[in-house]
């Protein structure tokens, strides 16, 4: 049966989610950050991790953003095919939610209206919206504000099929090594393997929103996540890039079928705040 949802519901939820994601570390990230202190071997690394946690706690208590770069609002909308929206344009409603969240929530406005002319839009719109039509009559909204310290260190590698899984590992490790301290480590590394040029990048972005500390249901992908996390944490970049064991908190990988002639790999690097807020309406 068709379920009607007024677009104002999108606006209200997205406004709250922009504010929430920018002020509180998600539960999964909180858990892996706490675990990181026990794993870290360097004294300076442990000290930095403790300072980051103290900063995150103060942010939540005093309603201060968890980072000054409150990001560009990336939004995944998984829309049930039984849903009918009423009350106006979905895209306008999403952007209105971002506008209200960033203006009323006093969040930094980081978006420019044109990549070359570069005038600030002053309300952090437009958002980057990824739509997906799924079975059912619900809408799952994921709001993931993305800072550009780490976004700028992200990469797409168009590998050859013969490069195989070793090529994938090298690509991920190259991206992380090149990112070094610029991505505000400890990082979360989102990886998309397969699809096309654009598909692997979107998969890598979506992978960042999967709960840190969980693994892919595909056995070889799960093993690859564990192996890559271990290898990344052997690079010595460490918390804040000042040396140590904990360079990454998680590696999340998504895969998709691809063409016989290619092996695209997207690596989307995120910092330790890895903001994401999820709701279903
Ligand atoms: S990369 Fe993350 S922690 Fe670093 S400045 Fe950007 S949002 Fe903040």
From TrEMBL:
NCBIfam families: PRK06246.1, ttdA_fumA_fumB. Belongs to the class-I fumarase family. This is L(+)-tartrate dehydratase subunit alpha. GO terms for molecular function: 4 iron, 4 sulfur cluster binding; L(+)-tartrate dehydratase activity; metal ion binding. Its EC number is 4.2.1.32. It is an enzyme of class 4 (lyase). Residues 12-277 form the Fe-S hydro-lyase tartrate dehydratase alpha-type catalytic domain. Keywords: 4Fe-4S, Iron, Iron-sulfur, Lyase, Metal-binding. It comes from the Bacteria. Pfam families: Fumerase.
